[in-house]
Amino acid sequence: MVSLPVEPVQLTDPEADTEGQAAPPLIFRHPLRMEFEGNYFEVLAYLNELEQGPWEFGWRQLNYKVSEYPLAEVTIEIETLSREKSWIGV
């Protein structure tokens, strides 16, 4: 597992006139890259658990490559959002 650089999230149109309006809350995207190996059903079960868990991760990218049947090498980038820039670290 590798923690990727934190990214600020733009919540408003940068060209919109915001004079006199309250600033939107600052949100940060915290991406992670994980690499693991498993057969199709193990990977599917893990991804289902990841989606249904309490962590509220979103997917960015998923690469699935069969290395030697039935095993596959999987690389997945997931992310979560936070109001804290240093919320997560690996």
Structure description:
The protein has 90 residues and is mostly beta strands. The chain has one domain (2-9, 25-82): Ribosomal protein S6/Translation elongation factor EF1B (Alpha-Beta Plaits). It contains one helix and five strands, in the order E-E-E-H-E-E. The longest helix is centred in the middle third of the chain and has 13 residues, at 40-52. The chain is elongated, with a radius of gyration of 17 Å.
Break the fold down into its secondary structure elements and pairings.
Elements lengths: L1 E2 L3 E3 L17 E12 L1 H13 L5 E11 L2 E12 L8
Antiparallel strand pairs: 1-3, 2-3, 3-5, 4-5
Give a brief rundown of this model.
The chain has 90 residues and is mostly beta strands. The protein has 1 helix and 5 strands, in the order E-E-E-H-E-E.
